[in-house]
Amino acid sequence: MRRSALLVVPVVLALGCYEADAPVLGLDPLVATIVVSPPSRTLSTDSVRSYGSFTAVVRDAVGNELVNRVVNWTSSDSTVVRVLLVSDAQVFVRGLRAGDAVLYATSEGKTAQASVSVTP
Q: Which domain CATH number covers 83?
């Protein structure tokens, strides 16, 4: 009995000594929210104004920005808005024809969106 009690004390002390927002046991914090900026944008089918960019900020439950997270970008209608160049946090899109589409940014099961309108 005495031996097992000595082993429990260091484990309890070690588990109790960490900051609330610090990763536990080396695990990365989970994605809690994603914010896409701008929340909406109007593009044109005109060659000069048909391109636009959006940025995603991924945050944990405490609000800390999480970097180096994979963000997948998709368009609700790729005949209106096509996703062109993607880096995890940023995407470039092109308006192809007049209409509306929703741009989705997804990371670790969380999704955010932005509205895109394309005018002739």
A: 2.60.40.1080
Total tally of structural domains belonging to the chain: 1
> Cα–Cα distance between 42 and 92 in angstroms, integer?
13
Predicted structure pTM score = 0.75
In angstroms, the CA 28 to CA 76 distance is 30
Per residue of the chain (120 residues), give pLDDT as tens.
555 444 444 444 444 444 444 445 567 899 999 999 999 999 999 877 899 999 999 999 999 999 989 999 999 999 999 999 888 899 999 999 999 999 999 999 999 999 999 999
The neighbour count for residue 104, using CB atoms within 10 Å, is: 19
Question: Do the domain assignments include residue 21?
Answer: no
3-state secondary structure of 55: strand
User: Residue 83 falls within a domain, yes or no?
Assistant: yes
User: Which residues constitute the domain of residue 79?
Assistant: 28-119
Query: Would residue 17 count as lying in a domain?
Result: no
Alpha helices per DSSP H over the chain: 2-15
- Phi–psi pair at 117, nearest 5 degrees: -110, 140
